[in-house]
Amino acid sequence: MNINALRTRFAAAAAAAAVLCAALFLAVPAAHATAAVDASGPSQLIQSASEVMLKDIDANRAKYRQDKTGLYRLIDDVLLPNFDVDFAAQQVLGKHWREADEQQRARFIKAFYRSLMQTYGDALVDFTGDRIKFLPFTGDPAAPRATVRTEIRRDGGSIVKVNYSLRKTAAGWKAWDVVIEGISYVKSFQEDFGPEVDAKGLDYLIQRLESPGPAVKPAKRS
Hints:
By secondary structure, the protein is of the alpha+beta class. The protein contains 10 helices and 5 strands.
């Protein structure tokens, strides 16, 4: 499935999936928002991050509709510390990550992250907490990898299954992938970006992502 199809599913689950769309600024004091997230386990991390986000959005919805800057700041402070940016970027680029130099890697992470925020972050403004159902955690909390399962209710009442992939790092549990109705965010971008990098080079992809406006759409292929 290409990114256009993924975006359709992603928009329906935007509030929960935004764990992988954290961005650039801050609307509430950093120490307060970060401390409110319980990262003691994979399920606690996903649920508490979502609750902190949605509580703030409920209180500031009208303001965020007028100016998204505060929303982007909130996303960054609550979610970015709990997202394994480097690992996700490595998986998205695949073999091209190994071929990239340190500057290219840093530019890709920053540009890709910014693009995700601009493309998907706005959908959070209209999302409410009653749409999310956190399913019981059935994994082994002692294992180095975990999956947290949720269900998102769409406007029409249908249910979208959203699963989070997490890994235990030296800094604690981190989310790195979202799987929406069986479609992996990381794998989908890898499949779209890979041929583009093969044909035009990594610098071309980075420059496209760095250009103004939402840039995570797949490039047109000849």
